[in-house]
Amino acid sequence: MARIIKEEEALEEALRLARGGLPIAIPTETVYGLAADACNGEAVARIYEVKGRPRFNPLIAHVADIKMAERFASLSPAARLLAEHFWPGPLTLVLPARDDAGLSPLVTAGLDTVALRCPKGFGARLIAALGRPLAAPSANSSGKVSGTSAQAVERDLGERIELIVDGGPTPVGVESTIVKVENEELVLLRPGGIAAEDIEAVAGKPLQRGAKGIQAPGMMASHYAPDAPVRLNVSHVEADEALLAFGPERVEGAEGARATLNLSPSGDLREAATNLFAHLLALDAARARAIAVEPVPMEGLGEAINDRLARAAAPRQ
Known about the structure:
This protein is of the alpha/beta class. Helix content is 29%, strand content 18%. The radius of gyration is 19 Å and the shape is globular.
């Protein structure tokens, strides 16, 4: 059973386990990550084993800063501009991988690119102390809802890992935005904690969309899924459904829902993103026949929220 240690007291123990090749759960600003030394193949393999994750699905390597990123990838002027503006923070850049840089091949899943992110807080301190990147997908069973608290991680993975570092609820609440930088073109692979419009404003160019295949984490059609089926953009609540609400007005039949949680009563998309995974898990615990989801606007962080909801509602793989 995993020990839960407050982040203020956890660095020494987390560093010991990371050096020993064991995965640990750590808080980041997005969601909790299942972290292990990205240069240690056995450690990375343990991430896949703990999560039950398909090995064709690549991982994000988390770095301490741009200098560390340059050891593992080539940063074009466009990539450097985005890194300088948004790091540390919830932006992952998919970049050409350097040959023989030392990352485990399991991190890139056979691709010639690597996904890099510079996190805030405890993760950054741990990476700096380790001196190597941490591979850190979300700390949950593969395809399930991402954990945004130490307690959520413990319920899912507590019997499979030794340590959960408790940093409290994560402030962003959805995973990072992933952008591939290719020949100075920017391709949005996954919407996330930074709105596409904000990235475009800094880059001075539009993000391309429509990427094919698995080029980065979080691109599988079915992902972030609770046990209950998910029904999107509902206009009414059916019998024995739980309701994931948004905004001040309710759809028809809301009063009869088995359980109701509102992502943001005021319609604030940032608050909605923060609450998304925790609310899905809580409604799943109600054991309703399905979870009905009220419409969420497709603007700003709403793009990331709708992306996660669509994957949660997709046919299970």
